[in-house]
Amino acid sequence: MKEIIKDESLVAYCGLYCGACKRYLEDKCLGCDKNEKATWCKLRSCCKENNYRTCADCKSHEDPMKCRKFNTIFSKIFGLLFNSDRNACIKRIKEIETDKFAEEMTEAKMHSIKKRK
After folding, report:
1. Nearest to 16 by CA among 79, 107, 60
2. What are residue 84's DSSP bridge partners?
3. How far is 98 from 109, CA to CA, in rounded Å?
4. Which of 95, 92, 94 lies closest to 110 in space, CA to CA?
5. CA-CA to 9 of 20 to 30 Å: which in 50, 53, 81, 101?
6. What is the average pLDDT across 50-79?
7. Interval 40-58: pLDDT, tens
């Protein structure tokens, strides 16, 4: 299994940190940016087309929850199953930038900010 290391390129377009994801660490996924098979992900496609590093760079939707590509049934199920708050991740990236976010997630050993209950 890979070790969790800080790598800004492992911050996914949606704000998750692939560098601490179990599938990435077990070599079952390349991470969001390098996973060319993830053509199903409309959010990934949007960010690539618009040359965004993450959804935090989007100028069309200040609040990612108002974006139909970000706020989908899939993301809601994912958030519920994994107690994941991608919206909080994007807000944090806006606050501290992608590099510092990768550092925080590495130190916390988390792939996502957890939802508040």
Report:
1. 79
2. 114
3. 16
4. 92
5. 81
6. 94
7. 899 999 999 999 999 999 9
What global pTM score does this model have? 0.93
What are the boundaries of each domain within the chain? 8-108
Contact 11, 93 (CB under 8 A): yes
CB-based contact 69:61 (threshold 8 Å): no
Provide the token pair at 4.
Answer: 């969790």
Q: SS3 for 62? A: coil
Q: Do residues 55 and 70 make contact, with C-beta atoms less than 8 angstroms apart?
A: yes
Determine the length of the chain.
117
User: Residue 82 has what pLDDT?
Assistant: 87
Alpha carbon distances (Å) from 62 to 52, 59, 94: 14, 6, 10
